[in-house]
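Aim 2 progress update. The chain analyzed this quarter is reproduced below.
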Amino acid sequence: MAHKWSCSNCGYIVDADTPPEVCPSCKQNCAFVDAACYTPECGGPESGNVDPRIVQGNPDKIKQ
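Predicted structure tokens:
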């Protein structure tokens, strides 16, 4: 299962095994944060959901 990575600069979400070096959205060399859900409140790790505490309610930035 691929992880969900959130760009530390623009918040863009990338669905990949490893985070990219350059963000596909802002084109910057950014740090990426693991944004996968690990708590029961958002469905747990098997759900494939993004943790809303990390993406702050911006699901339109998710790239699948």
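The chain has one domain: 3-63. The longest helix spans residues 52-55. These observations will guide the mutagenesis experiments scheduled for the next reporting period.
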